[in-house]
Amino acid sequence: MRLANLLRWILAVRLIPWIHGLPLPVTSEVFQPLFPIMPPHCTKTTIIKSTLSHASGDDITRTIQMNFRIGLQNTVCFRLENATLEKDSLFIDVINARMQDQGWLHTLTLSRLEHHHPISQHYDFAIPEVSTNCICECDVSSDICSARTYSFTYCSRGNVTQESCFRTFHPNQADTGCTSGSQSKLCCEVSFSSYQNKSYTAVKLEQPTTFIIFKYVAYDYTAGRWIEKDKSTVRVEVDGRTQWLFLDRWRRLELGVSAAGRASHQLESGMYFAPSNFGGEMDELRQQAINEINENNFEKLGWFRKDSTGHFTVRNGMVKIQRIHLAKVENCKDQKSQSYLDAHHYIDRNDPEKAERFTLESPVEQVYPWIQNAKIIDGTGRHVVVTHSEGTDVEVALQLHENTYSLSFVHDFSKLDDFSGTVIVDFKSNRFFNLTVYNATGIIHGIVKKTTDRNSIDEFYFTTYIGEMRSTNKTLIVPLPALIDGGDRMICLRADDSTNLPEICRIISFKEVALEINLLENTWKEIDGHCPECNKITVGGFLSNLNPINWANGISSISNFVMMITDVIIYIIALFVAYFILTRCLLPLCKCAFCFPPAPSCCSFRSPKCKTKNAKCPY
């Protein structure tokens, strides 16, 4: 008798678990974490039971299948119960050892819903910091400022590291500060550098593939605490047909997953960008008007991008900058001018009061409440993973490949002590209930009333889920329809299992944020140039001003004509004064100086009337 009992104990405790891969009893608790383990909240789920029959020759195999739907962050819980009737078997202990997980709590959680977007375009760009310097020249023949030296060229000065510089030429400017009738020339240097040495990665997203992640854990409650006996995490693609896989390591629980339809939300295909993090994940994905890789639109982001050498520059900048940079003269002599860059999304170094001429949109997780996070997942920049915070239910089929077992589903009770919140319409017109629950867990049902009166019409119903096992305080986002318009209203909540308890009702305030309108407007900015070599008096310039033909150049108004007449009168008066000084002063002095020996006839300064006949003039 003792030998039989010993044999049964060896088979039950040592041999059978080793054959079937079961963990030995002494090892399951040793490597558990020091912190207490708590199973997730078991959500109440509607189950449809069916039995599948499969004929293989003369044998018929029957498989139990459970069909149910599970939502994001929800958990389905079940136990395996021994259905055998062989109570008097000699090997009942062996069977119990084989079925030692009979009391385990098996949990299946839909932990994440992901969209994997392939990337078809990728480049790096920066916000440019722009500095402009202009010089003005009145002399049309001067080479200091000319089309040869400034039209469609790079800056000739020593280039600063990480700075790109282009020259622009602006002829036929106003003659302010120059001689009348002349046309000044304006020559500028426009330099670009990355603002604060920050860079961004632009990507083009294509249509996504949908993946869901299940977390399976089997718990055993032993010695007053929970112990994890088995667990696995599986990722399943659900855009196609039903996917089948085994959950447990003994391959008894088989899971079939299919989507009831596409996810209710997804990011649109198009251009996005994120702050660069070379070689790692890039978060804070943003959606904004941005150039595709073959575009060069200066009203969109991404026109100052990294080239093949690793430097930031303007593509085809020698031609493009000449086209978008405008300049005009205020006073050529004083080297004062105005500059205008016909572009958006840059920093103007010449305007410290209003330097920023760009705006960046908020990350997509702040714009769309249904996004938990969005990341470029690796340094190669080939995929973007968008993790959802809400989504549609998934169809699940659970098969048990064990004749001696049956499935028994369980769920936890729901609880709610109190709540608060605000109905918000944000700057993108997303309408939602920002809900905070206190000491709550499980399934929470809500009713939105028409007014602040509790007896008013029920306008909208919703259900939300809290996955924590223990009661907690948590903030949730509940989407609302457009009919929930302005004004405070009453909202009532109740826990799923508290049908006999009164609802908790609170008057909830309504908050509407104005639409965000970012208008980027450029203005003309004054530029003080420095050019000691400009506007110097030369012989050629002086002779050209003496040419009467040049006087009539540039006359386009009455004021210009009056200025020309005034200049002519001044020139005539100046000629008469010069003639008088020359004939009455300079020539007599020269004649006296060169007369040897001096004679009264040479150095005579008598007036003409002394030369008349018989006139006496004193010597």
Automatic annotation (TrEMBL):
GO terms for biological process: syncytium formation by plasma membrane fusion. It comes from Thelazia callipaeda. It holds the Pfam family EFF-AFF. This is HAP2-GCS1 domain-containing protein. Residues 1-21 form the signal peptide. The chain crosses the membrane at residues 561-582. GO terms for cellular component: cell-cell contact zone. Keywords: Membrane, Signal, Transmembrane, Transmembrane helix. It comes from the Eukaryota. InterPro entries: Fusogen_EFF/AFF, Fusogen_EFF/AFF_dom3.
